[in-house]
């Protein structure tokens, strides 16, 4: 799976570089975020701008990661969510828990407010 | 990648994208009838779609559908629990 991780003022920004985020790719993605939370970086932004489709396993994975970040005293937000991805998140109710931000700047501002 | 067709001729690629199936059903059944469709019309269209799938394809979409609904159910239960806690704390 193609992704990069940056740190901005203590917040981890995980940039997903795949157009379809689906089950076979989730292990690497999940491991990356779990590793961040385990190392003490519990405020995480996932930049989803290149992602045009996610499957149900991905929604489940994002909910797991959200719960782990929250349990560690932090939060997980999504940035740059495309329309069909947003549809999957709203259909499953995930948007009631995971904050969807227009872009990385907005997500960062939300953490720093 | 295989494609199948609705009764109206719309194509659905069978690449595991469950949302594409839902969007096509909505467009070709619900929206085409200006939201005035019966449950039987949707049931018949779903049956037509499923009939064209191989057993493997049906397994794939069933698993995807079950996972989607299980996540939805979990989130609904979690939301209810949070609302209940909020009410108890008032």
Please outline the helices and strands.
The complex is a heterodimer of chains A (113) and B (90).
Chain A: E1 3-8, E2 11-16, E3 20-21, H1 26-38, E4 43-47, E5 53-54, H2 56-71, E6 75-79, H3 83-91, E7 99-101, H4 104-112
Parallel strand pairs in A: 2-4, 3-5, 4-6, 6-7
Antiparallel strand pairs in A: 1-2
Chain B: E1 3-5, E2 11-13, H1 18-31, H2 39-51, H3 55-89
Antiparallel strand pairs in B: 1-2
Description:
The complex is a heterodimer of chains A (113) and B (90). With 113 residues, chain A is α/β, with parallel strands linked by helices. Chain A contains 4 helices and 7 strands, in the order βββαββαβαβα. In chain A, β6 (75-79), α3 and β7 form a beta-alpha-beta unit. The longest helix of chain A has 16 residues, at 56-71. The mean pLDDT of chain A is 94. Chain B has helices spanning 18-31, 39-51, 55-89, and strands spanning 3-5, 11-13. Chain B has a two-stranded antiparallel ribbon with strand order 1-2. The chains are: A alpha/beta (113), B mainly alpha (90).
SSE string of chain B, helix = H, strand = E? EEHHH
Question: How large is the share of residues in beta strands of chain B?
Answer: 5-15%
Query: Rough shape of chain B?
Result: elongated
Structural class of chain B: mainly alpha
Helix content of chain B: 55-70%
What is the average per-residue confidence, as pLDDT of chain A, rounded to a whole number?
A: 94
Radius of gyration of chain B: 17 Å
Spans of at least 5 consecutive residues with low confidence of chain A: none
